[in-house]
TrEMBL record:
MF (Gene Ontology): lyase activity; metal ion binding
SUPFAM superfamilies for the chain: ADP-ribosylglycohydrolase
Listed name of the protein: Adenylosuccinate lyase
Region named Disordered: 279-310
Length: 310
């Protein structure tokens, strides 16, 4: 077991208390707060000011939480992942890696939900290959050329961690290295072993393990995470508060509006705003069907009248 107390306090690491998390988790928390308080609009302003020609891992490191938000609607997941990625990381590879990770999380939640609804006593495990393929197909939409798509496929289907060269000099921050290590971890069965392997491979280790941990824990369940890693977190109570409120909101969003019980006005605003588009689509569909039915009835009536007249 690797414990927080075993951290070697060299010049780099002494800046963190035992159990403290790094900028990757900060990004996830900031997105969660942004969705709770201002619908993520602040992100757009940041992107306008800071276009970036490179493909660093800043967006993919924080994207896993976007697989939870509206997880039942893949179109919304892709849209949210792209919008929040593009605010700081416009490179198509950053967009593709953000979509791939967010969609994979959402697909796993959809799978769990279906299994629960089916009432299976022994739920079927997630089909890792199918999740990767579907996540790849949606992520590809951010890319243009065949070469770009082949590169994405290679990183998402990596089976040997070494081939990712996570500690490659001057390239440790490349978005596909992080995404590749996460999809490698996604194929593993032991959370602790997999995370330690990614960590020990070096490079941008906190970032790689943040995303790898998100995908593998989502597949295996929270019980797969070693207790000391959770219990020893320095801001655990504060983070749990946000997580619980966020998960409660996600649950509320799957209910019909009249059955929702938002805890305050801000929660209600988020629920309504996030759902506006979905409800508008449903309403349009209902109107279209109604008009079709009306037209069919009128046509039938006209035929009858014509046949009576003749
Ligand atoms: Mg990092």
């Amino acid at each position: 077991m690797l414990l927080y107390s075993q951290k070697v306090n060299d010049v780099h690491r002494e800046r963190w208390k035992d159990g403290d998390w790094t900028d990757d988790t900060d990004h996830v928390v900031v997105i969660m707060q942004s969705l709770l308080y201002n619908k993520g609009e602040a992100a757009y302003e940041v992107w306008e000011k800071s276009r970036n020609r490179f493909a660093p891992n800043g967006a993919v490191m924080r994207t896993s939480v976007l697989g939870l938000h509206q997880w039942y609607d893949l179109e919304a997941v892709v849209k949210n992942a792209l919008a929040i990625c593009k605010c700081t990381h416009y490179d198509p590879r950053c967009q593709a890696s953000s979509v791939a990770v967010s969609v994979a999380v959402a697909l796993m939640l959809q799978h769990t939900s279906k299994e629960k609804a089916s009432g299976n006593k022994s739920p079927r495990p997630v089909d890792v290959t199918a999740v990767i393929k579907q996540a790849y197909d949606l992520a590809c939409q951010a890319l243009t050329t065949k070469e770009e798509k082949e590169e994405l496929w290679w990183y998402m289907n990596c089976t040997k961690l070494k081939t990712l060269k996570l500690d490659e000099q001057d390239k440790i921050g490349f978005t596909y290295k992080c995404m590749g290590s996460a999809f490698w971890a996604f194929k593993q069965k032991d959370f602790q072993k997999a995370l330690i392997k990614v960590l020990m491979a070096g490079g941008d280790a906190d970032t790689n393990t943040a995303v790898a941990g998100a995908l593998l824990a989502c597949k295996l369940g929270v019980s797969a995470i070693p207790d000391p890693w959770l219990d020893g977190l320095v801001h655990k109570e504060w983070l749990d508060g946000y997580i619980n409120r966020f998960l409660h909101l996600q649950e509320e969003m799957t209910l019909p509006i009249e059955q929702r019980t938002p805890s305050n006005d801000l929660d209600l605003k988020l629920l309504l705003d996030a759902d506006k588009e979905r409800h508008m689509k449903k309403e349009e569909e209902r109107k279209r069907k109604y008009e079709e039915k009306l037209k069919a009835l009128e046509e039938e009536k006209a035929k009858k009248e014509a046949s009576t007249a003749s």
